[in-house]
Structures are given as C-alpha cells and as structure tokens.
Amino acid sequence: MALKNNISFSLALVATAVVLFAATANSQATDHCAVAADKELCVALVKGAKTWPEAMTNALQATLQKANVAKSVVDGIPKKLSPSLEPQSKESIKKTCLDAYQSIIDNSKECLGYVKSGDPFSSLKTYLSSIGYTDCVDGLNDFGESLPEVSQFSTDMRKFANTLLAIADSKKKN
C-alpha cells in the first residue's frame, strides 16, 4: 500500500513539474508582450523567444520580411498615380515613397545591430520609433492621391513599430 501511495505521489509530483515547466516556458515567451497593444501580433513576432535579444531579433527580422513582401507595393506606386499629375509631382512621390521604404529597411537593420552589440537602449528606441511609412502616405495625400495598399502597409508598419517598442520595453532594467 505504501509503495502504491509513493508511486501515485511521484506521478503527481512529475505531472506538476511538467505543468509548471510548460507554464514557465510559455510565460517567458509572452512576457516580452506584456505591454503590447496587439498581443497576438507580438506573440507572432517574437516566435517563442526565451530571451530579450532573441525576441527583439525575431521581431526585427519579421519586420524586414514584412517590408520585403511589400516591396512590390512600393515599386508599383508610380504606375498607379493619376495620369493628370505633373511628371515632377510623380517623381516627388516616387522618391518620397522609396526613401520611406529604405528607411524602414535601414532602421530595422540598425536596430538589429543595437540588439546584437548591446548599444545604448535609447538609440534602439529612437530607431524603433522611426520605423514607419507615413511619409509616403502623407506625400500621396499632399497631391490628392490615395492608394489603399500603401495605406495598409503604413498601418502595418505602425503596428509593427509599436509592437517592437513594447518588446524593447520588456528588457529588464539593470
């Protein structure tokens, strides 16, 4: 009888340990998203990372992937502009949108460097804050143009930037 109770107690102890381990692992992955407004997006971006550098790296790489997928949208802007726009206006919009796109790429890569090298946290947050595509949308609006796919990309990048900032804020302060 005592042997049976010991086995039952041991099994219960093992089961409890497994549950606690699983909860801890899940908690570590979602702790990076504690202050994120869009927790679902955050969890998708950190991809189960256990450490802050892993979470930031995963999220920044996902941002770069999202931007790379949207490159065709950016490249297609000039062809979708109103034929009544002056050539210099079209060129201005094209340049603004390409520059804004390149800024997303450059700033994301700069942030990856800050995460890897442990450079100043304030620099990381400054670059994270500048990941966006609003300059292009504003440029289109200035000329009375509106492209839904460009507006959607801008909205997506704003959500990514806000989520990246939330992940950055999850870093333990030393």
TrEMBL record:
One family from Pfam that matches here is PMEI
Q: Which UniProt keywords apply?
A: Signal
Per UniProt, residues of the Pectinesterase inhibitor domain are 24-167
The organism named in the record is: Abeliophyllum distichum
Question: What Gene3D superfamilies is this protein classified in?
Answer: Invertase/pectin methylesterase inhibitor family protein
The record's listing under InterPro entries reads: Invertase/methylesterase_inhib, Pectinesterase_inhib_dom
The source's superkingdom equals Eukaryota
Q: Does the keyword Signal apply?
A: yes
Q: Where is the signal peptide?
A: 1-29
Q: What is this protein called?
A: PMEI domain-containing protein
